[in-house]
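agent> step 3/5: call structure_predict on target 'Adenine phosphoribosyltransferase' (Alteraurantiacibacter aquimixticola).
agent> reason: downstream docking stage needs a structural representation; sequence fetched in step 2, passing through unchanged.
tool.input:
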Amino acid sequence: MTLDQIKALIRTVPDFPAPGIQFRDITTLIADGRGLASAIDHLAERVPQGTSAIAGIEARGFIFGTALATKLGLGFVPVRKAGKLPVETIGLDYTLEYADARIEIDPSLVSEGERIVLVDDLIATGGTATAAAQLLRQAGAHCDTALFVIDLPELGGADRLRAEGVESHSLIEFAGH
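tool.output (status=ok):
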């Protein structure tokens, strides 16, 4: 499938979760087997040589990240919300647009110096993705690439990641937010 065909599979829900927001709903993409497989194929083309693992951000990054890791025969590192992992973790507190948040990983899943690519469904302001890249680096990984299905470029998240030394690649873009 072409990227335009994949884009056509993503439903836009107006005024969710608040008036004026155009929510980009990927459930219609993941419900289409051919579309999901094609999105994973396109993401796989963007994974740099030498990558040893894929890290996915909870929750929709788990969908794309595990599928991508499976396709490439790589391990998967879940980046979880606070308190979700049953083992000792390392975490990072960060600020979202209107709230504070925390993400955590199991550091035993990361080897010193390994190259990990970060994956999520969408990049908006880049707060969570930037925090996830910093956390992976804190654990000893090289995290200099992030992949997304959707970019909302007006919100500046990809630029924020690039300012942190993380190259951002998205399959499609939507104007607005």
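agent> step 4/5: record observation. Strands lie at 11-14, 22-25, 53-57, 75-81, 90-95, 100-105, 115-123, 142-151, 167-173.
agent> proceeding.
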